[in-house]
Amino acid sequence: MALHFERSEFDARRDRLLIEMADKKLDAVLLFAQESMYWLTGYDTFGFCFFQCLVVKADGSMVLLTRSADLRQARHTSTIENIVLWTDRQGANPAIDLRNLLNDLDLLGARIGVEYDTHGLTAYNGRRMDEQLQTFGQIADASGIVGRLRLFKSPAEVAKAEKAANLADDALDAALPLIKQGGDEGNILAAMQGAVFAGGGDYPANEYIIGSGADALLCRYKAGRRKLTKNDQLTLEWAGVFHHYHAPMMRTVLTGKVSKRHQELFDASRAALLAVEKAMMPGNTFGDVFDAHARTLEAHNLTKHRLNACGYSVGARFTPSWMDMPMFYQGNPEPIAPNMTLFAHMIIMDSETETAMTLGRTYLTTESAPKPLSRHDLDLIVQ
């Protein structure tokens, strides 16, 4: 089987989940998030765009309900032994199949947790499921249970993150020679993604972000390419990915001369990222990290040009986003603890002058100061 961790690792993860289930008095949980299934069993697919559910009972047994297209996928990539199929057909309602499965598992009248907060369960399918289960048992929202377990990385997961970070660095190294006057954004993207693939990496959970000129102020991918000019700005947000573990980076690279405004924004972004590093330590919270970023940019008179979040947890994620919870935003009480992999990004977008500046990298938290996972420094890159 194509497992990327030892069986003992999966057993330990299952045991951690069972402790949480017992604490919340759950007889079973219905998992719909693909990253939850991957973390717990190794199951690797994009088939979660259709209805599928991993049922985990309090005794540790698991049953996957999925479609025929994912039967072999589950057998080949996961530790799941019991797989039940629902049939594609006109008028099919897999929520009925799920109810029947739960009945076969002797869960009628049980307290069942549901992982609602995920792209793996659409509102349409969620409503159909609720209709079938409203009188079946006591249903509780179990969103975030597995997500919080995934927040703390094992040594084996840290190794995946470190490999992903090496691939992110390789991607930047591949891009830099192409970032110059006349350089084509398409060639830059191809070089970056190609470096990750050549290094044994995977597709990212969302598209790389690339934009030059006025588009350098955008924080999302969009279609369309352009070529760089003599004095240009290019914003890149990308991730090295290894066995679905992500290590994002973010930089705004300049061609030609550095404007006064670019230098001002870079100095502020670097100061803010260094302040964030000092706050990213046990004893502080995710909200404290955001506050360090906000205070620094306020001191540079840039409050109106910053965002309302400055990073988030990262790990093994699936489409449509590599962003994980929790995030760095105001008031977030989640404590910083060792063995988290966290992406911090400083994003300053001055729409008045159409000047962009970004700076970000992935960290491993420790008992003290966080460890940057990138080998690149924080200097302004000018080509």
Write the layout of secondary structure elements.
Blueprint: H1 7-23, E1 28-31, H2 34-41, E2 53-57, E3 62-66, H3 71-77, E4 83-85, H4 94-104, E5 111-114, H5 123-133, E6 138-141, H6 145-151, H7 155-175, H8 185-198, E7 209-212, E8 232-242, E9 245-255, H9 260-279, H10 286-299, E10 311-313, E11 324-327, E12 341-350, E13 355-364, E14 371-372
Parallel strand pairs: 1-5, 3-4, 5-6
Antiparallel strand pairs: 1-2, 2-3, 7-8, 8-9, 9-13, 10-11, 10-12, 12-13, 13-14
Helix pairs in contact: 4-5, 7-8, 9-10
Domain Peptidase M24: 161-366
InterPro entries: Creatin/AminoP/Spt16_N, Creatinase/aminopeptidase-like, Creatinase_N, Pept_M24, Peptidase_M24B
Organism: Mesorhizobium montanum
Which class of secondary structure composition applies to the elements? alpha+beta
Helix percentage range: 25-40%
Counted by DSSP, the helix tally is 10
Q: Termini, distance in Å?
A: 46 Å
Major sheet attributes: 8 strands, antiparallel
Query: What is the tally of beta strands?
Result: 14
Q: Uncertain segments of ≥5 residues (pLDDT<50)? A: none
Rounded radius of gyration (Å): 22 Å
The quaternary organization reads as single chain
> How would you state the average pLDDT, rounded?
97
> Given the C-alpha coordinates, what overall shape results?
elongated
Note the run of SSEs as H and E: HEHEEHEHEHEHHHEEEHHEEEEE
Estimated share of beta-strand residues: 15-25%
